[in-house]
Design brief:
Layout: H1 4-13, H2 31-35, E1 42-45, E2 54-57, H3 59-66, H4 79-86, E3 95-99, H5 105-112, E4 117-121, E5 125-128, E6 133-136, H6 138-147, E7 153-159, H7 178-189, E8 190-202, E9 206-210, E10 212-214, H8 217-224, E11 228-235, E12 239-240, E13 254-262
Parallel strand pairs: 1-9, 2-5, 3-4, 3-7, 4-6, 7-8
Antiparallel strand pairs: 8-13, 9-10, 11-12, 11-13
Helix pairs in contact: 1-6, 3-5
Length: 265
């Protein structure tokens, strides 16, 4: 068993950066952990995309995004706006956390849906000049949480982020369970019964080393466990389709959004 403090303390004590360039192949001593003893197939899809840039989110830039139709940023999909519109009541006048974001399309969309305040957690260097928007690096978030000063947020939104955790593509530490550990920490950061908008590729379980994971029955079971209640599910081709959660057997994966409700305190 472990506590939220254990999780954040583990991250505090872990390396903040992985090897560079990242390994082109899965380290042999971690292969079974990454593939769940060979159950998850591996496809070669190698990248080294460490964030070397600084980003400035000015009021002008964010207002430009607010004037655009919300299409999940570069993914050109309606599911982000559809999921936010469907659960607008959980966003309006609430405080939210965005996890993983180098362009503020999600923040702009959430403000358009009435969010009172947004906190973005991102490894890259971002300077934001916009009312009720703040940026935290993961190390700073750890510090706040371990000091006891973190106030649980009302909702969390993450899209095309967790599937990369632990693969080293962006200079992060190599960790077979990096995504699972992040999911646990999100549970700690959210208020009871709060919603998590969890956007990841969904289909058959596949590890595209070191690009990303595709989430199917096996990996989703690890991510959800008994910590989250599945509320809804949105895919690019079907919109809202909760019944797909019973099979996860799509051959071609798609970016999808799972709407999850926190179970427990």
């Amino acid at each position: 068993s472990f506590t939220c403090v254990d999780l954040f303390d583990k991250q505090r004590l872990s390396p903040t950066e992985g090897p560079w360039p990242p390994p082109e192949d899965i380290p042999s001593d971690l292969y079974d952990s990454f593939t769940l003893n060979g159950l998850i197939p591996v496809v070669n899809s190698y990248y080294n995309d460490a964030y070397l840039y600084h980003y400035v989110w000015s009021t002008e830039v964010i207002n430009q995004y607010r004037n655009l139709t919300n299409k999940c940023g570069p993914y050109h999909s309606a599911i982000c706006d559809l999921s936010m519109s469907t659960y607008d009541v959980f966003i309006r006048d609430q405080i939210g956390l965005v996890v993983g974001s180098i362009s503020p399309w999600a923040e702009a969309a959430l403000f358009n849906h009435g969010a009172a305040k947004i906190i973005t957690v991102e490894y890259a260097d971002i300077i934001a000049d916009y009312p009720n928007l703040s940026i935290l690096k993961p190390s700073k978030l750890n510090e706040i949480y371990l000091s006891g000063d973190w106030k649980p947020v009302d909702f969390i939104f993450t899209f095309s982020s967790l599937e990369h955790d632990g693969l080293g593509r962006y200079g992060d530490p190599i960790n077979p369970f990096g995504d699972v550990e992040t999911m646990y920490r999100l549970h700690c950061l959210l208020k009871p019964d709060g919603l998590l908008f969890f956007g990841v590729p969904t289909g058959n379980d596949v590890l595209h080393w070191n690009s990303h994971r595709v989430y199917g029955k096996m990996r989703l079971a690890m991510m959800f466990q008994n910590w989250w209640k599945i509320v809804d599910f949105f895919t690019m081709d079907t919109g809202s389709n909760l019944t797909l959660k019973l099979s996860y057997n799509k051959v071609i994966y798609e970016e999808s959004i799972w709407v999850l409700q926190k179970i427990g305190s």
